[in-house]
């Protein structure tokens, strides 16, 4: 019972982290936004400064996603056996 609550809380935190990290990533398709915004390729981080930030955000997304799936499976097993 306690393990289910702890895993549930961790899943909720991971869901919030995943949502924030995904929203912080820059889009890869610039066609429509370039048309509306005037086609500027410069961002707040400069021309190439955002690439390391995007790599970090991508890695955080992958790790959190894997943890989310694993914990979801573990929680399902715990609930079905309990």
How would you describe this structure to a colleague?
Helix content is 77%, strand content 0%. It has 3 helices and no strands. The chain has helices at 2-24, 31-37, 49-81. The radius of gyration is 18 Å and the shape is elongated. The N and C termini lie close together (8 Å).
Give a quick precis of the structure.
With 82 residues, this protein is mainly α.
| Approximate strand percentage | under 5%
The best one-word shape is elongated
Structural class based on helices, strands and sheet pairing: mainly alpha
Largest sheet: none
Average predicted confidence as pLDDT: 83
Salient structural properties:
3 helices, mainly alpha, 82 residues
Compile the SSE list and pairings.
Blueprint: H1 2-24, H2 31-37, H3 49-81
Helix pairs in contact: 1-3
């Amino acid at each position: 019972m306690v393990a289910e609550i702890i895993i549930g809380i961790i899943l909720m935190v991971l869901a919030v982290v995943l949502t924030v990290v995904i929203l912080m990533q820059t889009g890869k398709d610039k066609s429509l936004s370039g048309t509306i915004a005037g086609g500027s390729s410069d961002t707040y981080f400069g021309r190439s400064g955002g690439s390391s930030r995007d790599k970090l955000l991508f890695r955080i997304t992958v790790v959190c996603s894997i943890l989310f799936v694993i914990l979801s499976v573990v929680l399902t097993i715990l609930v079905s056996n309990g």
